[in-house]
Amino acid sequence: MITLRNVEKFFEHGPTKTYVLRRINLEIKEGEFISIMGPSGAGKSTLLHLLGMHDTAWTGEYNFLEFPIHRLNKKDRSEVYKKYIGFVFQSYHLLDSLTVYENLDIPLSYRNIKKAERESIVCDSLDRFSMVGKKDLYPNQLSGGQQQLVAIARAMIASPKLILADEPTGNLHSSQGKEIMEMFKKLNDAGTTIVQVTHNEKNAEYGNRVIQIEDGWMKQ
After folding, report:
1. Reduced to 3 states, what is the DSSP secondary structure of residue 60?
2. Does the domain formed by 2-219 have CATH 3.40.350.10?
3. Whole-prediction pTM value?
């Protein structure tokens, strides 16, 4: 599903370069559940955002399904992202001007799904995450944990082929966190590929492979 070849990311300060990712070579097969681990500042989230096509300032090759991402322009990358990927951001990234219901509807609006069917899918998702009573509220009216649940629901709602999650249970209490990881496991068992960044050893155990990143290098 994913192949990275000699991927690097760096920042230039005059004549010097500060590397965030170094010579990353990685293959992810469809249906895998992978955890990216390592110390703070190691490059874990940078790698996840690169996989999520949010970051374009890198070198190397990135192939996703049949798409050579390194050759695509911004618009085409965005189309691939919308069609195939769900992303759980560490800082939620909910749209403040939209209600919970409207935030959940957005990923569905990118696909050719009729309005009535979209309404049904959103209502099912609200029910699944116990957020029915919050559907008309705006993100700033929710607690951090509630925003996290909406962000996870939004990533999952359109049944993407790939879910990328940056510390998905970071703002949830332990029972909610366990529930979310069980949901991810069920999705993965049904064929969804999942890549998560986590510091949590228990969360990592839900996956079938751990990738360690340290100082921008992938440890074998």
Report:
1. strand
2. no
3. 0.94
